[in-house]
Design brief:
Helix 7 runs antiparallel to helix 8. 67% of the residues lie in helices and 4% in strands. It has 20 helices and two strands. The protein has 389 residues and is mostly helical. The protein has a two-stranded antiparallel ribbon.
Length: 389
């Protein structure tokens, strides 16, 4: 292996240091660690104990396992049900090559955890698989921030235990302050749901700094702006994400939502329709159906409702999508029936933000809605300040 390394001052474009490394590719982690330490020394950086441990760590001695793990991460980042399934397959292959590869188990946990969010499986089926993999990863290596972040997210999504989630996220971030995903999930799955919208924005901004080209992290910064009712910033951020990749449907339907909330209905409709050409995900379908119902296109809304009902008869389909259409149709009773069904199905992705979801605002004040919200985020916890330790 031949590696050229250059260090530049980005502000002045001045050349600080360069070196080359010729090594046999027998231990990639040793080479990575050597290069990282040299760069740190050149910068006269003061490394913390956890950073030194990360540099010195050898997650696996099996190069094939590591390559399979990297392929798993590649597909995990794409955030579609099909790609998440591929990532699970690669992580399992990595584990088969090295059964003690904690990072592979952590990747497996993060993939199983995300599947329900992208119409890839029922939470009741996926979350237990995710938790088992996360706990296996931590049994192998208790310092893996990836595994702690997965466990933290599951505490919120599966059990609505936000106090427990916060403790796990804080531990993950203490172990690896550069873990962009831990920051993202802390903001998106916990701070959002307990009403800490400005803190959510701040933590999401940090996640973007750590991983500026991540489509999902950039998208979730846009969602954070929606929660903070900063719609112009939400639209700008989500348009920026769509420019990075126009096929990333999660960014598109959240852009549509921001446009709708801004009152730009034709633009929002067009974005929702573009999203529907890319995915069968019931959430954007429900959002579009709701929009149709609110703006006099009841027949189009009912067609989407029928489509979602048919989908539910065949496979897991988030109840939240149907609830949204009934909100648009003005049928509060049916909307609440479906939201309660989502709660029973542990759909923390869609039910967790119940107190901050602007699309559910027409239901606020209804005794059934308030009783359901109390089960998810007790009023005494909502808006409570969270300080990261």
């Amino acid at each position: 292996m031949h590696v050229n390394v250059q260090l530049l001052n980005a502000l002045t474009d001045s050349h600080l240091w360069a070196d080359t490394y010729d090594r046999k590719l027998t231990d990639i982690f040793a080479v990575e660690g050597e290069i990282a330490k040299t760069i740190a020394d050149t910068l006269q950086a003061k490394l913390s104990g956890s950073e030194k441990s990360l540099i010195a760590k050898t997650p696996t001695a099996n190069n094939e396992a590591h390559e399979l793990y990297l392929k798993g991460r590649f597909f995990w980042n794409k955030r579609t049900a099909e790609d998440l399934r591929k990532s699970i397959d690669y992580f399992n292959q990595a584990i088969a090559k090295d059964p003690n590869y904690g990072l592979a188990y952590a990747g497996l946990a993060q993939s199983w955890k995300l599947l329900p969010a992208f119409n890839g499986g029922a939470p009741q089926d996926c979350f237990p698989q995710a938790e088992a993999a996360a706990r296996k990863a931590l049994a192998l290596d208790d310092t893996l921030s990836d595994a702690h972040a997965a466990l933290a997210s599951l505490k919120g999504l599966n059990g609505f235990d936000y106090a427990g989630a916060i403790k796990e996220y804080e531990r993950a971030i203490r172990l690896n302050s550069n873990d962009a995903t831990a920051h993202q999930w802390f903001a998106n799955d916990t701070l959002a749901n307990i009403g800490q919208s400005e803190r959510e924005v701040a933590v999401m901004k940090r996640a973007v700094e750590l991983d500026p080209l991540s489509l999902i992290i950039n998208s979730n910064l846009g969602v954070a702006y929606i929660h903070a009712d900063r719609l112009d910033e939400a639209i700008a951020q989500l348009r920026k994400t769509v420019e990075l990749d126009g096929t990333f449907y999660y960014a598109r339907y959240n852009l549509a939502q921001a446009l709708e909330l801004k009152g730009l209905i034709p633009e929002a409709t067009a974005e929702y329709q573009k999203t529907m050409s890319m995915t069968e995900d019931p959430v954007p379908l429900g959002m579009l159906g709701r929009l149709y119902a609110l703006h006099g296109q009841k027949d189009a809304a009912l067609k989407i409702l029928q489509r979602l009902r048919q989908n539910r008869a065949q496979r897991y389909t988030a109840a939240y999508g149907l609830a949204l259409i009934y909100v648009g149709l003005g049928d509060r009773n049916e909307a609440l029936n479906w939201l309660e069904q989502g709660y029973r199905e542990h759909d923390g992705f869609n039910i967790g933000p119940i107190r901050v979801d602007p699309l559910l605002a027409p239901l606020q004040g209804d005794p059934r809605f308030e009783a359901l919200a109390e089960k998810i985020v007790p009023a005494r916890e909502f808006g409570k300040t969270v300080t990261q330790k």
